[in-house]
Write a structure and sequence with these properties.
Strand content: under 5%
Mean pLDDT: 87
Number of strands: 0
Low-confidence stretches: none
Length: 128
């Protein structure tokens, strides 16, 4: 709950300041948006350790290889980063760059998941 309040406060203050700055200095408003994103990511990163510990326990308890969960976590990270990057490009009225960020994120997610696809393929081949 505390995390959501912090993030909401940072974003609301930054959004209000950006609206005020956008009329006179749009470049500074964009830099403010990027700074707010960095601040929010810094706050969110503090909670990632608990998620990592949970997945580590899950992998250990289930007797599964970390090769199965690693692509999943990387793909989630790519998706979140892509979403933020796309929205920042759209805020800067750079729709072509926003599309490139989305395409690159999708391509990166596929690349990260190749080891998972290979593991599933090997498991299916062993069943045949």
């Amino acid at each position: 709950m505390e995390l959501i309040v912090k993030v909401t406060a940072i974003c609301l203050v930054a959004a209000l300041l950006a609206v005020l700055l956008k009329k006179s200095n749009p470049e500074l408003a964009m830099l403010l948006a990027v700074a707010a994103c960095v601040a929010v990511l810094t706050v969110v990163m503090q909670g990632l350790e608990g998620i990592y510990v949970f997945f580590d326990e899950l992998v250990t308890w289930g007797g599964l290889s970390s090769d199965i969960f690693s692509p999943l976590l990387k793909t989630v990270g790519i998706a979140l980063t892509t979403r933020v990057g796309t929205e920042l490009c759209k805020d800067a009225d750079e729709n072509a760059m926003a599309s490139l960020v989305e395409i690159t994120g999708a391509f990166g997610a596929i690349l990260v998941c190749i080891p998972l696809f290979q593991a599933v393929w090997e498991m299916l081949r062993s069943l045949i």
